[in-house]
Amino acid sequence: MQVIIRNTMVEASVWAARYIADKINAKAAVSDKPFVIGLCTGSTPIETYAELIRLVKAGKVSFKNVISFNMDEYVGLPVEHPESYHSFMHKYLFDHIDEPAANIHILDGNAPDLAAECAAYEKAIEAAGGFDLFLGGVGEDGHIAFNEPFSSLQSRTRVITLTRETREVNSRFFDGDLEKVPAQALSVGVATVMGAKEVVVLAFGSKKARAIKDAVEGPISHYCTLSALQNHPAGIIACDEPAVGELKVNSYRYFKATE
Q: Fewest CB atoms within 10 Å of the CB: 36, 60, 131, 251?
């Protein structure tokens, strides 16, 4: 595991965007096969997406041969709802880059058979060749995607019942009204994410410090699903200074020295 530490959220976000762009360009230089990327939502990746948009518009990277799969979507929320992850992704990324619409994949939280939708999603990822890179965030309790504490580390895409804590955190996007936040979501599993060749996780702010400490220094446990990244051969967490505030001094020094 590698931990990239920058002074601010913006600096860490820019680092992540340029890292992703470099990986897309590196594959394009040696292969005609598409670059397959997993994408996340929420406030955490917004600046990373903004930098990717700038890079695309500057001609420094192209998404024409990129296939994307989003990690989750609410159950029962209309696609056109401003807080659906379909709406989020188009607002903050897809409407501003050159990725073909046919290459964009987002789970359908209104599918008539949710289990079948999840199974088909896993097959589509496999058919695309698997993830070259998965970009994720982490919840305050250490969850990745919607894999709440005690989710199996071998889990795959499935229907998940959201904890009250997660719904309370997300209620800021729903006028602060907990009752407006869907109780369930579709989400890729921990094993789905960890199956990527590379995983880059963003973590910003002091509220994520405990999760980063547990994920980096704690045991591998389904209590903190991000801790599965310890077993990944190419896992990276990109943080700002507040997010690493609870790491041991020697851990902090190690990651700063080895970067």
A: 60
